[in-house]
């Protein structure tokens, strides 16, 4: 299957009411484990990828290393792979275009691209972020890859649940602008209220991606709310490391 075919297959998996489940991975080994479990696609999570290399989230993992890990993952699985691109490791359109070109050489067919100001505060203004998304789309179009750009909106991640109801309208304005700029999906980590998720999914012009957490609705509730994609963020990595710690403690206690 060509990269373009994998990209189209991946996009078709985003069905409101029948969401794609993505168990986020951090290296080639975890990608193969998730594939063996029956996954339909592979997704990285920036927090886990960075932590597995001893780095913090927020683009502290060097871009060259991130791309090398990404290439190892895409080479280790036949499934479509989407990568967490954070903020594109770039402040200028020129650097963003260059980094996007490099990311596409890894064999990825999708990426997460977030609107928070990494290394700063708050979110990029809507016009600025729309322009950034348009740059990523333009680069992808020149390669002929129908890249799935999952536009991450950090409104809800940067505030408490009490503020979320009042942020839905801004989230929808961002979704509209991001869709017009060429985004393929809309990702709202931090949003967990079932009624707000349903409201957002119904009005959003893009397939909605929700990240699960302790306060999140269960998968069937998210499906009923019209969600098209469910991510698990760093939870799989944290569970794996907890298991390794427990195993090590057990062995070391008998040494």
Automatic annotation (TrEMBL):
SUPFAM superfamilies to which the protein is assigned, alphabetical: Phosphoenolpyruvate/pyruvate domain (SSF51621)
Ranges in a coiled coil: none
Question: What CDD domains would the database entry show?
Answer: ICL_PEPM
Q: Which GO terms describe its molecular function?
A: lyase activity
InterPro entries listed in its UniProt record: ICL/PEPM, Pyrv/PenolPyrv_kinase-like_dom, Pyrv_kinase-like_dom_sf
The record's annotation in Pfam families points to: PEP_mutase (PF13714)
Q: Give the record's keywords alphabetically.
A: Lyase, Pyruvate
Give the source species: Algicella marina
Q: What is this protein called?
A: Isocitrate lyase/phosphoenolpyruvate mutase family protein
């Amino acid at each position: 299957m060509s990269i373009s075919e994998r990209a189209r297959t991946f996009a078709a998996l985003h069905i409101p009411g029948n969401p794609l489940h993505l168990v986020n991975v951090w290296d080639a080994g975890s990608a193969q484990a998730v594939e063996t479990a029956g996954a339909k696609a592979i997704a990285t999570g920036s927090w886990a990828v960075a932590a597995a290399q001893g780095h913090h989230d927020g683009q502290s993992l060097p871009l060259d290393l991130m791309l090398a890990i990404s290439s190892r993952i895409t080479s280790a699985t036949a499934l479509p792979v989407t990568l967490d691109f954070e903020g594109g490791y770039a402040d200028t359109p020129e650097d963003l275009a260059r980094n996007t070109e490099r990311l596409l050489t890894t064999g990825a067919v999708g990426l997460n691209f977030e609107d928070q100001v990494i290394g700063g505060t708050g979110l990029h203004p809507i016009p600025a972020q729309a322009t950034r998304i348009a740059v990523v789309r333009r680069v992808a179009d020149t390669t002929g890859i129908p890249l799935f750009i999952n536009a991450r909106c950090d409104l809800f991640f940067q505030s408490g649940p009490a503020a979320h109801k009042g942020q839905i309208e801004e989230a929808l304005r961002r979704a509209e602008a991001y869709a017009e700029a060429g985004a393929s999906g809309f990702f709202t980590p931090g949003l967990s209220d079932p009624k707000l998720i349903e409201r957002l999914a119904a009005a959003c012009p893009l397939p909605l991606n929700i990240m699960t957490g302790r306060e999140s609705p269960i998968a069937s509730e998210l499906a009923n709310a019209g969600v098209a994609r469910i991510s698990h963020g760093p939870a799989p990595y944290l569970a794996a490391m907890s298991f390794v710690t427990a195993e090590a403690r057990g062995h070391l206690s008998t040494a």
